[in-house]
Amino acid sequence: MAKLPILEFPDERLRTKAAPVETVDDEVRQLVDDMLETMYDARGIGLAATQIDVHRRVVVMDVSDDNSQPLVLINPRYTPIGDEKELLSEGCLSIPEHYAEVPRYLKVQLNALDRNGETYELEAEGLLAHCIQHEYDHLEGVLFVDYLSPLKRDRIRKKMQKRHKQMQDA
Q1: What is the pLDDT of residue 167?
Q2: Catalytic choice (27, 118, 135, 140)
Q3: Rounded to 5 degrees, what angle do the CA atoms 147, 153, 159 make?
Q4: How confident is the model at residue 170 (pLDDT cuts 50, 70, 90)?
Q5: Known catalytic residue: 135?
Q6: Annotated binding residue at 92?
Q7: pLDDT tens profile 106-121
Q8: Distance of alpha carbon 114 from alpha carbon 45, whole angstroms
Q9: Which of 63, 70, 72, 93 is nearest to 29 (CA)?
Q10: What percentage of residues in the chain have a pLDDT greater than 90?
């Protein structure tokens, strides 16, 4: 397994729409393993392949307190269950140290392939439902800052650009 570099906003590669996975093979399973290691190392609860500059529809997540329930979503699709939304503070491994409240559906029905290419469904609510929607957005080239006002989004962009400059100068 390998820890992979995570792209950071405002990197334009984060705006790439991911392509479907045609076949779940050893290469995809290795990608899943590397993504899980990367996510856990970065202390995240979700990671989309787009964030590591692999533009395929693969997501890993684990919203458990002890990292004991990894979930693999290959070619995920979700449908809202009802119209009710809630605000939850979101962060992102691609936008470190920045958080904002984003409205997401309270409950969703997920359809995806697992690590072995088997189809599965699950009904999610709360943090898991938020995480599914957040990571799905990544596969569509959407970031949580896109839900913010242009002023807030621009402020975060400038702070991230300053952060990248400081890291390069160090």
Answers
A1: 85
A2: 135
A3: 145
A4: confident
A5: yes
A6: yes
A7: 999 999 999 999 999 9
A8: 17
A9: 72
A10: 94
